[in-house]
Amino acid sequence: KDSSTGTPNNVCSSDVSDMVGYGKTFFVVTSADDVYRYNASSGQFNDGANALGGGVHMLCVYGQRFYVTASSSQKIYSFAPADYNSITTSSSYTLDIANKAWNVTSITHIRDVSDGIWVFTLNQSEAGCWVFKWDGVTANDPNSAYFLPDSFGVMSSVIKGDYPWILDSNGQLLYFNGGTFVNAPNGKLPIDNPKYLKNSLSAVNDRWIHPNGMTVVNGKIRASINNEYEDNGATIEERLPSGVWEYSPENGWSHIIP
C-alpha cells in the first residue's frame, strides 16, 4: 500500500480491486468497497461512494458509464464518471445474477465491447459455467447467456476484433464466433489438468492467471501464467513454466518471457 498523501486510504489488492482509465484520469476500487478518482490537477485521489457490498470489484467503461462487479460478486452496479459518489444499485444500468436459473458462484470479471458488456463467471460446483452478454441498460437480467459445459470458470479474457477470447479452467483458449464459444486451434495450454493449478476454484482473483492477465501485442494473444500447484509443497507444473505465453493458431502456446 502507498500511504503517501493523496493516495487511496484503503488497501488495493489484485485479488479484489481493479482500476480503469478514463480520458486523462482513472478510477480505482479498493478492497474496502470505496471508489476513488484520480485528480490530475492536484495529483491526488478523491474518495467517492462506498456502496458496493463486498466481493470482487472489477471495472469496465461502456456508454460513458462505469460498471463494477459488486454485492458478493453476483451483481453489477454502475455510476456516471462525473458523479462517482452516487452508485446505481438497482433497476436500469444494473445486473443481478444471484439466485437465478444459472449456477454461478461469482463473476470473475467484465469486458466492454462496441455493443455491450461481456460478463464472465465461476461455478465452484464444477458443473459447467456461464458467460453473459448484457447491453448495460436492461434491469437485472442479461440479454444473452452462453453455457460452457466442460468448464467451471472463465479465468481470464481479452477483446480481439471486438470479440472475447477467453482462457477457461481447463487451460483451453476459446473465442466467440458470433454465435457461440469455440475452441481456438491449438489453444490448449501444455498441461493435463489445470484444475489443480493454484486457486483455480477461488472466488477471488488469486487464481493461476489473473482476469487482467491477457493482452494482445502485435495481433497476438499473450497470457501471464503462474505454474504453481494447489498443494502444501508449492510444487510446479514443469511443462508450463511461469511467465508470459504467446498464442498462435499454427503453433499454439509458446513461452516467451520467464
Describe this protein's structure.
A 4-stranded antiparallel beta sheet has the order 1-2-3-4, with no helix packed on it. Strands 5-6-7-8 form a 4-stranded antiparallel beta sheet, with no helix packed on it. A 4-stranded antiparallel beta sheet has the order 9-10-11-12, with no helix packed on it. It has 258 residues and is mainly beta. The protein contains no helices and 20 strands. It is globular. The protein has strands spanning 18-22, 25-29, 34-39, 44-50, 59-62, 65-70, 75-79, 95-96, 106-113, 116-122, 129-134, 144-148, 154-160, 163-168, 172-176, 181-188, 214-217, 220-225, 243-248, 252-257. The two termini are 26 Å apart.
**Secondary-structure element sequence?**
EEEEEEEEEEEEEEEEEEEE
Spatial separation of the terminal alpha carbons: 26 Å
> What is the topology, as strand order, of the major beta sheet?
1-2-3-4
State which percent range the strand residues make up. Answer: 35-45%
| Total of helices | 0
Helix proportion of residues, in percent? under 10%
Q: Low-confidence parts, pLDDT < 50 over ≥5 residues?
A: none
Structural class: mainly beta
Overall strand count: 20
Arithmetic mean pLDDT: 91
| Shape category | globular
State Rg. 18 Å
The largest sheet, given as strand count, sense and whether it forms a barrel, is:
4 strands, antiparallel
